[in-house]
Write a structure and sequence with these properties.
By secondary structure, this protein is α+β, with helices and mostly antiparallel strands. The protein contains 17 helices and 9 strands. Strands 5-6-4-7-3-2-8-1-9 form a 9-stranded mixed β-sheet. It starts with a helix and ends in an 11-residue tail after the last helix.
Length: about 475
């Protein structure tokens, strides 16, 4: 709405000019576009510098990117018209010439519609792209934390997907007697109030092939950090959490656990999918700091040659035979899928926002273009009086708006991809989420094509009806 408002009100500059005729001349308009373009580049550079120095300033940075988009949009539209003028010389048909002249004549109208389309695609690409990167990062975190064990056995129910509820490990020996089981480790985890955050604590057993999700470590020597965690007395902490408490790698920290125990920071990590932050330590260190031998899950490793599906089947049969219906069995892949489903539900609102933005923008653009085309019936009648057929007028309207939407939406797509990178940086550095930063062009191009095609499809009918105006209307002016 603000983008369209700014575009529509831009002619006030010409109205308030002391020399309105000079203000709308070609040379003055070119100089004005150049000045606005330079302002747009300055806004773009300021946004990049701001988010590089201060990633927390995501909102002001995005405002600057939008300002840059609006400032550079007139240049994109002018370039589109210039290219159309050159290509029009290759055709005998008057359609491209008239479409270009109509767009040049209705500058304010064209800017309003182009700005609406640009903002629609910009929002859809930026939000949708950031959501995909975030979801990919969360999936990686879910796979890495689930890979700590081949099979997970935990209390039945979907209320404890993060495995933070303690229970007495009374079935450890029974599970260890199942054929093929190599080790039954005690996984421990919980939520800890640390400062103003409710932190997730992850404590895999020493029987795990790896204790740390290596892909979540930030600039750390993973093997060295792994050795320290296994030795006890060390932990891995989310970077945002460490920065909040002014902590560094190698520094000692005493967590507010039931039995406060000095530990040292072996490495920094992402938040591993838990927004307030996460801490990783070994299961024995957790038991010492909490003063309890309770477990949150059994982390089971099978002997070589036993597949996870077969091992899970053996465990389910053993638990069913002993009447242990309070425990459920999951493979690492199944647990990862459950965590990913939880992440997708949590991010569903971003998907809805990214979907609604282009839908309402398309409807707004189609309504505005349709109304303006209908108001131009006298002009269409004059063109018809000059010899243009109804089919040519209809193609002129479609081409005119294709150029308009193309200029706006392509510009919005390019800025949306750039804004996606800025949003990724803010998510990674400010909230410390795991991210998979990738420039995924197909979804952006799909959003671009969908907005243009849908708007033109909606416009086709009112445009065709408007071209049915009789030529005699032009004689009544």
């Amino acid at each position: 709405m603000l983008a369209a408002f700014a575009a529509v009100m831009s002619p006030l500059r010409d109205v308030r000019s002391r020399d309105p005729l000079a203000a709308i001349g070609p040379h003055e308009r070119s100089r004005a576009r150049a000045r606005i373009g330079l302002a747009g580049l300055a806004c773009l550079a300021a946004a990049s510098a701001l988010l590089t120095v201060e990633p927390d300033a995501a909102i002001p940075g995005m405002v600057l990117v939008i300002a840059a988009l609006l400032c550079l949009l007139p240049l994109a539209l002018a370039a589109t018209l210039a290219l159309t003028g050159r290509l029009a010389r290759l055709f005998v048909s008057p359609v491209p010439h008239i479409a270009r002249m109509e767009l040049s004549a209705g500058h304010a109208r064209a800017m309003a519609i182009a700005a609406t389309g640009a903002m629609a695609v910009f929002g859809s690409v930026a939000i949708g792209g950031a959501r995909r990167d975030l979801l990919a990062g969360l999936r990686t975190a879910a796979r890495e934390t689930s890979a700590t064990a081949q099979i997970w056995v935990a209390p039945t129910g979907s209320y404890d997907l993060l495995m933070t509820t303690p229970f007495a490990p009374l079935a450890q020996a029974r599970l260890g007697r199942v054929p093929g089981v190599q080790a039954v480790g005690l996984y421990r985890g919980g939520l800890l109030d640390y400062g103003q955050r409710r932190v997730r604590v992850i404590a895999p057993p020493l029987t795990a092939s790896t204790l740390l999700p290596a892909g979540q470590l930030l600039g750390a020597d993973a093997p060295r950090a792994e050795r320290r965690i296994r030795g006890g007395g060390w932990l891995v902490m989310s970077r945002a959490l460490a920065e909040e408490h002014d902590l560094r790698v190698g520094q000692a920290v005493i967590l507010p656990t039931p039995d406060p125990t000095p530990m040292r920071i072996a490495a920094l990590s992402t938040n591993i999918g838990w927004e307030p932050g996460s801490i990783v330590m070994s299961s024995p260190s957790y038991a010492h700091a909490w003063g309890s031998t309770d477990a949150s899950a059994y982390a089971i490793q099978f002997a070589p040659g036993v597949t996870p599906s077969r091992g899970a089947r053996e465990l389910r049969q053993a638990l069913a035979g002993s009447g242990q219906t309070a425990l459920s069995v999951q493979t690492a892949e199944e647990r990862s899928a459950g965590l990913q489903a939880l992440d997708e539900r949590a991010l569903a609102r971003l998907t809805q926002i990214a979907t609604l933005i282009p839908i309402f923008a398309v409807l707004a653009m189609a309504a505005a273009i349709g109304a303006m085309v209908w108001q131009r019936r006298p002009r269409l009648a004059k063109l018809k009086l000059e010899g243009l057929a109804r089919a040519q007028l209809w193609r002129t309207i479609l081409l005119e708006n294709l150029l308009l939407l193309g200029a706006g939406c392509v510009t919005g797509t390019l800025f949306g991809l750039y804004a996606q990178r800025l949003a990724d940086r803010a998510l990674a550095h400010t909230i410390n989420f795991p991210l998979s930063g990738s420039l995924d062009l197909p979804p952006a191009l799909a959003s671009l094509g969908l907005v243009i095609a849908t708007a033109l499809a909606i416009l086709a009918l009112p445009g065709y009806l408007a071209t049915g105006v009789p030529a005699s209307v032009a004689l009544q002016e």
